[in-house]
Specification:
By secondary structure, this protein is α/β, with parallel strands linked by helices. The chain has 12 helices and 11 strands. The chain has one domain (3-293): 2-enoyl-CoA Hydratase, Chain A, domain 1 (Alpha-Beta Complex), CATH 3.90.226.10. The longest helix is centred in the last third of the chain and has 21 residues, at 242-262. The structure holds ligand LTMAUQNL. Its main location: mitochondrion.
Length: 296
Amino acid sequence: MALVARVRALLLPGSRLRGATLGRAANGGGAGARRALSHRVLVEADPAAGVAVVKFRNPPVNSLSLEMLTELGICLEKLENDKTVRGIVLTADRPGIFSAGLDLTEMCGRNPAHYAEFWKAVQELWLRLYQSNMALGAAINGTCPAGGCLLSLTCDYRILADNPKYTIGLNETQLGIFAPFWFKDTMVNTIGHRATERALQLGLLFTPAEALQVGLVDQVVPEDQVQSTALSVMSQWLAIPDHARQLTKTMMRKATVDQLLKHREADIQNFVSFISRDSIQKVLQVYLQKLRKKNH
Ligand SMILES: CC/C=C\C/C=C\C/C=C\C/C=C/C(=O)SCCNC(=O)CCNC(=O)[C@H](O)C(C)(C)COP(=O)(O)OP(=O)(O)OC[C@H]1O[C@@H](n2cnc3c(N)ncnc32)[C@H](O)[C@@H]1OP(=O)(O)O
């Protein structure tokens, strides 16, 4: 289903996204700050600063389900069309887990049409974020594996909470799958080829100190200062004239974006045929069961 159709489905009577409002904040935010609510994404906009804080709230682990991807896409599209917003900070509504990455239940026990729809939505969100004209910051206030790490890598800078429990990286190989070429390219663009090769083959999840050392994040700060630091760094990015910053960003990212645009359909087909293999379904199911067993 294309984004428009998925949005329609989410707006059907009964959907909690229906009637989402952008009103004056009940609390928090500067004077004139506005807060918009959807089911899985919370937006706190500060028009005076030109910045919106987009908070993930898809319990229990902020996984990127099809619905979460769709709501995030809608929210970003709205912000892109809002002339008062020049920068966005992505964060988790509750500290602890920034995002557990792609929702594994979307990749297990479904049919090929579902896998294709899901993968298209992952591509769409990446394209929207990686090509965004806005300045994007990640205030990483929790653990950040795989798809969660990818989200943060689409941003222009990353601030990570100084908590050794919070790790970040593309750990796909540890699950028995692998990071697609555009996940890999996004990481190469951030930390370079050799560090990416090592990180991806070993499926490394970096502690904050390691992430800072390898350049996966730009700053590690005390946990209670992640969002304030991300906002203060944002003011540096917004001090640059938009057109100059945007042209530079496009120049740096265009080749990577073009690769996916050129191979988009093939990438979907590759994903569907890989994820549908019995052997891959088995490893994903074992991984999910291990996660679930912990709690039962
Ligand atoms: C074209 C390309 C072709 C081929 C490429 C092929 C494949 C590549 C495709 C995609 C790349 C994949 C990207 C991904 O993002 S895969 C997801 C990777 N994520 C992880 O490995 C994280 C898994 N989760 C955890 O490690 C922990 O849950 C976490 C540390 C985040 C939190 O720990 P905590 O102890 O706080 O919570 P849990 O008890 O573990 O979890 C609670 C609850 O949530 C469920 N859960 C966790 N993570 C996920 C997830 N990613 N998706 C769905 N569900 C998840 C977990 O099972 C628990 O459920 P329940 O027990 O039923 O409450």
